Amino acid sequence: MKKTVKVVAGVIENEKSEILCALRSHTMSIPNTWEFPGGKVEQDENEQEALEREIYEELNCTIKAGATIHNDTHEYEKFIINLIIMDATLIKGTPVAKEHAKVIWLPIDHLNAIKWAPADIPAVEKIMKQNE
Ligand SMILES: Nc1nc2c([nH]c(=O)n2[C@H]2C[C@H](O)[C@@H](COP(=O)(O)OP(=O)(O)OP(=O)(O)O)O2)c(=O)[nH]1
């Protein structure tokens, strides 16, 4: 049976209404695809805590996790992901790619110009639709 992995990811918006997008490196799982930064929820932490921890570890900045905007499952070849995407507010610092190949800020109406991890596609469509 495939394992289900619970992953939190953040939609971080800047003052120009651009969204932070992160490129998974060739050494990561699901390589060379774009994602909302975040990661797996560990035991003994809630979803907000997990997101705030992951963003600090991966991007060296402090965020406050907000409302959940997407919560769905997607079946990959090797595992099932429960992807929970939350709004996030940058509190301190500037995001720096410590583990990703790079990070970029994209206007919402350009989000579909990059190749997203398959589990993210419905969320990207939802975010773009809400912005129309
Ligand atoms: N952070 C994040 N991960 C995502 C997204 N969409 C998506 O399919 N994923 C997948 C990629 C990874 O397989 C998993 C997140 O785990 P992780 O960020 O801790 O990745 P990792 O490279 O340490 O994981 P792994 O190699 O041990 O599998 O969820 C997303 O938007 N954000």
Topology of this structure?
Layout (H helix, E strand, L loop, with lengths): L2 E10 L5 E6 L10 E2 L2 E3 L6 H13 L2 E14 L3 E14 L9 E6 L13 H10 L2
Parallel strand pairs: 1-6
Antiparallel strand pairs: 1-4, 2-3, 2-7, 5-6
Bound molecules: 8-OXO-2'-deoxyguanosine-5'-triphosphate.
Would you kindly provide a brief summary of this structure?
The chain is an alpha+beta fold. It is 17% helix and 42% strand.
Please explain how this structure is put together.
This protein has 132 residues and is of the alpha+beta class. It has one domain (3-130): Nucleoside Triphosphate Pyrophosphohydrolase (Alpha-Beta Complex), CATH 3.90.79. Helix content is 17%, strand content 42%. It contains two helices and seven strands. It has helices at residues 47-59, 121-130, and strands at residues 3-12, 18-23, 34-35, 38-40, 62-75, 79-92, 102-107. Strands 4-1-6-5 form a four-stranded mixed sheet, covered by helices on one side. The chain has a three-stranded antiparallel sheet with strand order 3-2-7, with no helix packed on it. A hairpin with a 3-residue loop joins strand 5 (62-75) and strand 6. The structure holds 8-OXO-2'-deoxyguanosine-5'-triphosphate (8DG). The site of 8-OXO-2'-deoxyguanosine-5'-triphosphate has 16 residues, from strand 1, strand 4 and strand 6. 8-OXO-2'-deoxyguanosine-5'-triphosphate binds at residues 7, 9, 28-30, 35-40, 81, 83, 117, 119-120.
